[in-house]
Specification:
Phosphatase 2c, domain 1, globular, alpha+beta, PP2C, 430 residues, five-stranded antiparallel β-sheet, binds zinc ion, manganese, PPM-type-like_dom_sf, magnesium, eight-stranded antiparallel β-sheet, 2 domains, protein serine/threonine phosphatase activity
C-alpha cells in the first residue's frame, strides 16, 4: 500500500536515532515523563483510494530529541486517488510551514490548531490548481507527549480509548446525512442538499450536495463540486492522563461496519499492530469488503508501563461522544471520584467553517518590517492598501469587514468562495 513520504521541512526531518532509543535515553536520564508511542496499521483495498501516513518521529527543532512529536493520518479518497496522494505528500508540510520557528513547546501546541486550519486550506487550494477532480477526507493526528491534536475533514473518524473504559470521539463526521449544522451551512452558502433522483422521481441513498453529488460536506480537493464543500477542519486538542490511551484512526470502511465502542472493545489488551488487524478483520466479518478499509492503532504508553493496556473498569465502559471526565458530575455538581481519575482534559475544540473564527484576530500580520505575510499560504507581500483584505473588491455591500489576519488576494478569494460570497466558478477549472 502507501509508503512513507520524506518531509521537506527541515523541522520534521527523519530521525538519526530510533524512537525507542531516544525515549529510552530520556527515561534513563529521569528527566522526561514523555510517553512512548507504539503503532500498527492494517487494511484492505477495494478501490485503492485509501492512503495513510505514519511519521512517528518528527522534531519541532531539528536534531533536538526533546522536541519530538509524532504524526499519523488517514486520507480516504473518492473519485480517484490523486487528492489522497497529494494530501499525504503535502498536508503535513503545509501545516508545519505556518508555525513560527524557534518557539517553545507550549506556544507550539497553542499555535497548532490555527496552523492546521491554514495548512488544510493551503493544501486544498494547491490541489485544486492542478485541475483534477478527485477529493479526499483527511484526518491528521499530532501527538506531543500527552497532548493529542486531531484535525479532520470528512468522515475518517479518530476515537480515543482512554483506558479507564471511556471511548471518546475526537472528530466530527462531516456527512450531510448526519450533520444538520453542515446541511444548513451548505444550503446557506448556495448548495443544494438532496438525495439521488432516479427516473420516476424515486429518491435513493444518503443526502448529497448538488452540484457534484458528494455525501461529505468538507474535504480536500473536489474541484468539480461547489466551493462550500470546504477544507476547514474540525480541530480538537486533548491532554491524556498519565495512564495514556489508545487512538483508533480509520476510514469509513471500518466505521460503517463497527460502532466506535465496539471497535475499541474488539482490540483491547492487544498490541497495536495486532489490534489494527483485528479491527479490520472484525469490520470485514460484519459487513464484507464493501469499501476501502484502513485502520491505524496508536498507543500512547506511560514511560513506566511495561504492558500495553491496564485492566478496564467495566462499569465505566460507555461511549461518550465529545464528553470527558471533567463534564461528568454527580448530583452535588462535583466530579465523581471515578471520572476524575484518569480523566482526559479537553484543551481546545473548534469546528466552525468561518475562517475569521478559526484564524483569530491576534496573529501578527506585520512581519519583515512592512511586509504582510498571508496567514494561509504564508506568501509575503509588500503592504499595499489594494491588497488588504479589508478593502475587498469582491464583498457584496452587506458583508461586514474582515477582522482576521492578513490574507493575500488569492486566499481572500478562496475565503469568499467558501462562504458563498461570490458566484461559483472563476479560478477553478470545472
Ligand atoms: Zn495567501
Amino acid at each position: 500500500m502507501a509508503t512513507d513520504v520524506r518531509p521537506r521541512d527541515p523541522s520534521i526531518q527523519p530521525p538519526m536515532v530510533p524512537l525507542a532509543t531516544l525515549i529510552g535515553r530520556e527515561i534513563r536520564g529521569g528527566k522526561s515523563q514523555k510517553p512512548s508511542i507504539k503503532y500498527g496499521h492494517a487494511g484492505f483495498a477495494k478501490r485503492g483510494e485509501d492512503y495513510f501516513l505514519l511519521r512517528p518521529v518528527c522534531f519541532r527543532a531539528p536534531g533536538d530529541p526533546a522536541s519530538l512529536f509524532s504524526v499519523f493520518a488517514i486520507f480516504d479518497g473518492h473519485n480517484g486517488a490523486s487528492a489522497a496522494v497529494f494530501a499525504k505528500e503535502h498536508l503535513l508540510d503545509h501545516v508545519m510551514s505556518t508555525i513560527p520557528q524557534g518557539i517553545g513547546r507550549e506556544e507550539w501546541l497553542e499555535a497548532l490548531p490555527r496552523a492546521l486550519v491554514a495548512g488544510f486550506v493551503k493544501a486544498d487550494t494547491e490541489f485544486q490548481r492542478k485541475g483534477e477532480t478527485s477529493g479526499t477526507t483527511a484526518t491528521l493526528v499530532v501527538i506531543d507527549g500527552w497532548t493529542v491534536t486531531v484535525a479532520s475533514v470528512g468522515d475518517s473518524r479518530c476515537i480515543l480509548d482512554s483506558l479507564d473504559g471511556v471511548v471518546s470521539l475526537l472528530t466530527v463526521d462531516h456527512r450531510l446525512e448526519e450533520n444538520v449544522e453542515e446541511r444548513e451551512r451548505v444550503t446557506a452558502s448556495g448548495g443544494e442538499v438532496g438525495r439521488l433522483n432516479l427516473c420516476g422521481g424515486k429518491e435513493i441513498g444518503p443526502l448529497r450536495c448538488w452540484p457534484g453529488g458528494l455525501c461529505l460536506s468538507r474535504s480536500i480537493g473536489d474541484t468539480d463540486v461547489g466551493e462550500f464543500i470546504v477544507p476547514i477542519p474540525h480541530v480538537k486538542q486533548v491532554k491524556l492522563s498519565a495512564a495514556g490511551g489508545r487512538l483508533i484512526i480509520a476510514s469509513d470502511g471500518i466505521w460503517d461496519a463497527l460502532p466506535s465502542e465496539l471497535a475499541a472493545k474488539a482490540c483491547r489488551g492487544l498490541p497495536a499492530e495486532l489490534a489494527a488487524k483485528l479491527v479490520v478483520k472484525e469490520a470485514l466479518r460484519k459487513s464484507g469488503l464493501k469499501d476501502d478499509t484502513t485502520c491505524l492503532v496508536v498507543d500512547i504508553i506511560p514511560p513506566d508501563c511495561t504492558f500495553v493496556q491496564p485492566s478496564i473498569l467495566k462499569q465505566q465502559n460507555k461511549f461518550r461522544s465529545l464528553l470527558f471526565g471533567k463534564k461528568s458530575k454527580n448530583g452535588a455538581g462535583k466530579p465523581t471520584k471515578l471520572s476524575s481519575v484518569g480523566a482526559v482534559e479537553e484543551l481546545f475544540e473548534e469546528g466552525s467553517a468561518m475562517l475569521e473564527e478559526r484564524l483569530g484576530k491576534n496573529i501578527s500580520s506585520m512581519e519583515n518590517s512592512g511586509n504582510q505575510r498571508c496567514a494561509i499560504c504564508q506568501a509575503d507581500q509588500v503592504q499595499d492598501d489594494d491588497q488588504l483584505v479589508h478593502s475587498s473588491d469582491s464583498f457584496p455591500a452587506t458583508s461586514r469587514p474582515w477582522e482576521g489576519p492578513y490574507l493575500c488576494h488569492d486566499c481572500r478569494r478562496k475565503k469568499d468562495a467558501m462562504e458563498g460570497k461570490r458566484p461559483r466558478k472563476s479560478t477553478m477549472s470545472r
